[in-house]
Amino acid sequence: MYCRTFDKLTVTKKLGSAEGICYNEHNTAVMTLEVQHMIIAIANQKGGVGKTTTAINLGGNLAQRGRRVLLVDLDPQGNAATCLGIQKQRLEQTVGEVLLGETPIQEAIMPTGRPGFDILPATPDLAGTAVSLAGLMARETRLRQALAVVANQYDFILIDCPPSLDLLTVNGLASANQVVIPLQCEFLALEGLAQLKETIELIRTHLNSTLFIGGVVMTMYDGRANLARQVVEEVRRYFPQRIFNTIIPRNIRLSEAPSHGELIAEYDPQSRGAQAYAALAEELLQREETRR
């Protein structure tokens, strides 16, 4: 069995069971609930490492495999919606209004036009929301409270975190079960990784005791470069049990797909990028099966 902690409640689930039993601090059973969904924060404070590309294509591949997926965009750039063919200018309700308590999350979630794949979008206004959050109660757990309302409607919730360690990223990490870290196969890839690990430990200590690093995804890999191979080996030493076997190559088709509002599996399903993200989705599902 495994346990997951939400504030003062500990959820215990027996393998093979659809129900869990909640106990309070006095070890008294108080309610039952389903705990089948997985919430994954895709985070790295370094920009340009492939967080949004990983979020949308991993989500799309999971949905194609019959999973119900919600993508939460916490990046004020709001690129996730654009990459999925959604015009940000027409969005009236976004994750920013949800975090401020101005809009119910159900009203801000919208379909991506792909079966089983929804999005809670963001716009550049989210940068102002982050400032406003600083003066609110429970500012670090606003997203977790909102997601609790809809979590059981999805098998996977993917949170695309901004390239910083600000209050938005803290909300993402406080809401997640695990963190997936995209890491670019370049010289400065490991710079800042120690700081991200420290932030994760602080979140574990103060806000989310069950958060763990689910894996590191190496991105923008060029097998022709000795440096890229050296970076992968260095990360394998740093995270020997956590690095995904699937490596995302540097691929021009991956760069082109967002400009057409398409996933790589839609734009060029035979490309190396499409095959890599399909393999990553399969590897993630296999890891989740093993953990259960």
Sum this structure up briefly:
This protein has 292 residues and is α/β, with parallel strands linked by helices. The protein has helices at residues 51-64, 79-83, 95-99, 105-108, 126-133, 142-150, 167-175, 193-206, 226-238, 252-256, 264-267, 272-291; strands at residues 2-6, 9-13, 20-23, 29-33, 38-42, 69-73, 110-114, 117-120, 156-160, 178-184, 212-219.
Q: Any idea what the CATH superfamily of the largest domain is called? A: P-loop containing nucleotide triphosphate hydrolases
What is Rg? 18 Å
- First and last CA, distance: 8 Å
Query: Roughly how much helix do the residues carry, as a percent range?
Result: 25-40%
Q: How many DSSP-defined strands?
A: 11
Most strands sheet: 7 strands, mixed
Q: What's the CATH class label of the largest domain?
A: Alpha Beta
User: If you consult CATH, what is the topology of the largest domain?
Assistant: Rossmann fold
The helix/strand class is alpha/beta
CATH architecture of the largest domain: 3-Layer(aba) Sandwich
Uncertain spans, ≥5 residues at pLDDT below 50?
Answer: 1-35
Widest sheet: strand ordering: 7-8-6-9-5-10-11
- What's the mean pLDDT score? 85
Work out the strand percent: 15-25%
Shape by Cα distribution: globular
| Helical run tally | 12
Topology order in helix (H) and strand (E) letters: EEEEEHEHHHEEHHEHEHEHHHH
The structural domain count equals 2
